[in-house]
From TrEMBL:
Protein name, as recorded: TIGR01777 family oxidoreductase
Gene3D superfamilies on file: NAD(P)-binding Rossmann-like Domain
A Pfam short name: DUF1731
NAD-dependent epimerase/dehydratase domain: residues covered: 188-403
């Protein structure tokens, strides 16, 4: 028995290290909803080891009683196989954890090879249970039994708590009519949920009674900012396959404005968007029930740098050789792939989004208050814009309207020139805009990124209006008035715009 105890001690120590280092510190399994099935297997296996440790330490089985520990070892083997399969399904194991699993499998085989002859000899004796003692080994294994059983109970409690967390996401209305009546209860996954648009979208969805899942790099910070009602994950693998997600809104990606578009910067802009698109596709492929709609953020930059100010509907082509256009084409192509799963895809193409607490407006307003509002280049370039409230409105509109699919221009119906926009912004703040900045310094300093400032797209919200969407801020004056004097938002009449029928 001393050899059995030695092999089991090695098995227990390696398993304890694997449990503590990989399961607790690295993977944080007790905090991950997707790991609850793996934790359930761990809890049962630890309970088996707890019973085996205690039994081998103080009990001698003979005759038919040998079937009890032998049966536990057999069940443990099948649980371990199921655990390996569950790990491959739910998470990506690091190399060291895979290596430790190999060591544990070899050690377990050695244990069976050592203990099987002893069990066979004991089975030949008359059936009986006898108390025994192996000295220090018995006491060491008693302590190990208590520790393993306590860990089993801890994991069982974690499984119960994680089950309570995920339960509300598993009970969608049973039929289409009930789903329509319970629209506020539908679950929405938002990527980029802590950004300028994403934060406001999450709050809007919560105010409508929807359930919200947010993908974020820092779940703790996101939960603190968005509130306890939001389920924050840092990996889409943490979302169980049985979760019912009705809509996905993809707003993630590195900011298009900022550093010049060097080759490295271009790779970051493209890669950050295509990687999240790839992860979303993998998630939707494994979900037992596919989302009804995927809304992904592209931009009016899809149209590139037009030669004229002709109106650009959603059917206007992209522009080959223009980075901002090719970036948007790549984003939309990645999203449209998901149509093969029967998912309705909407490619939102917003212009410059105006909002009080983020986006372009605070910097523009600050410059205007200092009298530094400037006409850029000729100033005749069209400046496509939209208030953030209407971006949120179009997103929820696209969720609710099955007819909305494909590209959707997210721009206000009234499109001013850049000079007109600058003057209107300054006027809303009681200032004048008299400065003019030639185009060449911008082109010299920003390179191709200067196109965002010097070249406009006269995009028109054809599909939004045709589908019945009513703009909250159809005119620039309406939007700027609210932004300049936010307290007047509630008192001022809401400006509505709808295409005449």
């Amino acid at each position: 028995m001393h050899l059995v105890f030695a092999v089991m001690s090695f098995q227990a120590l390696v398993g304890a290290f694997d449990n503590f280092w990989h399961h607790e510190l690295e993977a944080r399994l007790p905090q991950r909803i997707s790991a609850r099935h793996e934790l359930r297997l761990h809890s049962v296996r630890e309970a088996i080891y707890g019973l085996l440790f205690a039994g081998l330490a103080w009990v001698q089985w003979q005759g038919w009683w040998v079937m009890l520990p032998a049966g536990l070892l057999l069940v443990e083997m099948f649980i371990t196989i199921a655990d390996f399969l569950e790990e491959d399904r739910s998470r990506k194991l690091p190399p060291l954890e895979r290596a430790l699993h190999t060591v544990l499998a070899v050690s377990y085989g050695l244990l069976l090879g050592v203990i099987a002859p002893l069990f066979w000899q004991a089975a030949q004796r008359p059936s009986a249970l006898m108390l025994t003692s192996y000295g220090l080994w018995s006491w060491l294994f008693s302590v190990a039994s208590i520790g393993v059983l306590a860990w089993s109970v801890r994991n069982a409690i974690a499984v119960r708590e994680l089950g309570r967390m995920v339960a509300p996401l598993m009970d969608p209305p049973a039929n289409p009519q009930a789903r329509a009546q319970a629209i506020g209860r539908l679950t929405v996954l938002v990527t980029g949920g802590t950004g300028f648009i994403g934060t406001a979208l999450v709050q809007k969805l919560l105010s409508e009674g929807r359930r919200v899942i947010v993908l974020t790099r820092d779940p703790l910070q996101a939960r603190a900012a968005l509130g306890p009602m939001v389920w924050c994950v840092d990996r889409l693998d943490d979302i169980p396959s049985e979760t019912h997600i009705d809509a996905v809104v993809n707003l993630a990606g590195a900011g298009i404005l900022g550093a010049p578009w060097t080759q490295a910067r271009r790779q970051l802009l493209v890669g950050s968007r295509l990687e999240i698109a790839r992860q979303l596709r993998q998630l939707m492929q494994r979900l037992e029930r596919k989302p009804e709609v995927l809304i992904t953020a592209s931009a009016v930059g899809y149209y590139g740098v037009p030669d004229n100010d002709d109106a650009l509907t959603e059917s206007a082509p992209a522009q080959s050789g223009c980075f901002q256009s090719e970036l948007c084409v790549a984003i939309e192509a990645a999203a449209l792939q998901n149509q093969d799963m029967g998912i309705r895809v909407v490619c939102l193409r917003p212009g410059i989004v105006l909002g009080k607490d983020g986006g372009a407006y605070p910097a523009l307003a600050f410059a205007a208050r200092l009298g530094l509002g400037a006409t850029l280049g000729t100033g005749r370039q069209v400046m496509p814009w939209i208030h953030r409230d209407d971006v949120l409105g179009l997103i929820t509109h696209a969720m609710a309207e099955p007819a909305v699919q494909g590209p959707l221009n997210a721009v206000a119906p009234q499109m001013p020139s850049q000079q007109g926009f600058t003057r209107a912004l300054a006027a809303s703040l009681g200032r004048n805009a008299w400065l003019r900045l030639p185009a060449w310094p911008l082109r010299l300093g920003l390179g191709e990124m200067s196109q965002l400032l010097l070249c406009g797209q006269n995009a028109v919200p054809t599909r939004a209006l045709a589908s019945g969407y009513r703009f909250t801020h159809a005119s620039l004056e309406s939007a700027l008035a609210v932004l300049a004097h936010p307290t007047s938002e509630q008192a001022a009449p809401v400006a509505l715009y709808q295409e005449a029928s």
